[in-house]
Each structure stands twice: as structure tokens, then as C-alpha cells.
């Protein structure tokens, strides 16, 4: 064998004490010598120690309402209002979601300008991880098509947006999702 950078090399030879029943090397320093009648195998084929690694796919333990993100009053026509939140609990390895859909339910009588805008999902560090497509009316759905990678462990996300001036006084906005059917996992 020769190195490619400097051209120096070593000659690998098998030892004379070959295991008569071995057809492959069994330790990191053993070579098979098929030149002798007592041994079979490939001359100079070393055994390479390798690690056996089992990789299990990530799994979703739960995606649930975030109790730490409380319902509250919001100002109309002001961006960044907290609309709700959810907590993910992921086991094994991170899971990526390519699409999330949230149904919007409202109470009260909304005017024609009653559409949520600038809706985003924010991680615990305050970074926007996804933005929603613009719904067409107050009772539509929010579709997030940005890929979100949920890390292993429990993580709470906040949904923020801008409530329109067409929202009724004392009205309620309820966001809900069924992750098993309204999320596209990659």
C-alpha cells in the first residue's frame, strides 16, 4: 500500500500462524494467508472493526395545547399578538414537518375584513420558524408550508398574528389541529 501524498508505502504480509478453519479475518490485526494449504480466504484481507449502530426513527410522543401559553385579550390591528401555543414531545431523533394546518373557529359576528394576518409559529427563543398562508375569511384554515424540524424532547411553540379590525368586541378565536391528519411529515 502506498500513500498518495508522499508516495511512501508499506508491505502487508500475512503471518505464518494461520487458523486452519478461518476463511476471513476475525481480529483487527489478523490477515488470512490463502497461500498455505491449511488456510483459505483472501490474501491480505484485514478484518476491519466496525461499530454496529441501530438508528431508530423519531417518534411523536405528543403534540398538545401548551398550558404555558395562556388565553388572553389581544389588541386588534397589532402584529405579534399571541393567539395560542402547542408543545411537542419528540423521542429518538428530530422530526421534520413540511406542512401544518390549523382550523380557525370564531365566536361573534366578524365583518368582511375579519381575516387573521401575519400569522407565524415562534420557537422558545423567539425565532419565527414558519409563517402561514393568508386565509380567505375568518372561518378558514391557517396552512403553514415552511418545514419545521421539531427537536428531541419537549418544546413549546407560540402562534402569533394580527387580529383584524373586523373582529367583534368580546369575540373568541380558537385554533385547532389534528397532527395525525393535518401535518405532512418528512
What does this entry show, briefly?
By secondary structure, this protein is mainly β. The protein contains 1 helix and 10 strands; from the N terminus they run βββββββββαβ.
> Class by helix and strand content?
mainly beta
**Total DSSP E strands:** 10
The name of the CATH topology of the largest domain is Immunoglobulin-like
CATH architecture of the largest domain: Sandwich
The helix content, as a percent range, equals under 10%
Order of helices and strands: EEEEEEEEEHE
Termini, distance in Å? 44 Å
Computed over alpha carbons, the radius of gyration is: 30 Å
What is the CATH top level name of the largest domain?
Mainly Beta
User: Major sheet: order of its strands?
Assistant: 1-2-8-4-5
- Give the DSSP E fraction (strand runs of 2 or more residues): 25-35%
Can you describe what's shown?
The chain has one helix at residues 179-182, and strands spanning 59-65, 81-91, 95-106, 117-122, 128-131, 141-144, 148-150, 153-162, 173-176, 183-185. With 186 residues, it is an all-beta fold. It has 2 domains: 1-50, no CATH class; 59-185, Immunoglobulin-like (Sandwich). The chain has a 5-stranded antiparallel beta sheet, with no helix packed on it. Strands 3, 6, 7, 9 and 10 form a 5-stranded antiparallel beta sheet that branches. The radius of gyration is 30 Å and the shape is elongated. The protein starts with 58 loop residues before the first strand and ends with a strand. Mean pLDDT is 76; it is low at 28-34 and 36-41.
Amino acid at each position: 500500500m502506498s500513500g498518495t501524498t508522499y508516495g511512501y508505502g508499506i508491505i502487508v504480509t500475512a503471518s505464518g500462524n494461520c487458523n486452519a478453519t478461518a476463511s476471513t479475518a476475525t481480529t483487527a490485526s489478523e490477515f488470512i494467508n490463502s497461500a498455505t494449504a491449511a488456510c483459505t480466504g483472501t490474501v491480505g484481507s484485514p478484518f476491519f472493526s466496525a461499530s454496529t449502530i441501530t438508528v431508530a426513527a423519531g417518534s411523536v410522543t405528543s403534540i398538545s395545547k401548551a398550558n404555558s401559553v395562556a388565553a388572553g385579550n389581544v389588541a386588534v390591528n397589532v402584529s405579534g399578538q399571541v393567539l395560542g401555543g402547542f408543545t411537542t414531545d419528540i423521542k429518538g431523533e428530530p422530526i421534520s414537518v413540511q406542512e401544518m394546518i390549523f382550523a380557525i373557529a370564531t365566536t361573534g359576528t366578524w365583518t368582511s375584513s375579519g381575516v387573521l394576518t401575519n400569522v407565524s409559529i415562534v420557537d422558545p427563543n423567539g425565532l419565527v420558524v414558519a409563517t402561514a398562508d393568508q386565509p380567505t375569511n375568518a372561518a378558514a384554515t391557517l396552512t403553514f408550508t415552511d418545514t419545521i424540524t421539531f427537536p428531541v424532547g419537549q418544546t413549546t411553540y407560540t402562534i402569533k398574528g394580527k387580529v383584524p379590525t373586523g373582529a367583534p368586541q368580546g369575540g373568541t378565536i380558537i385554533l385547532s389541529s389534528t397532527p395525525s391528519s393535518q401535518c405532512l411529515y418528512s
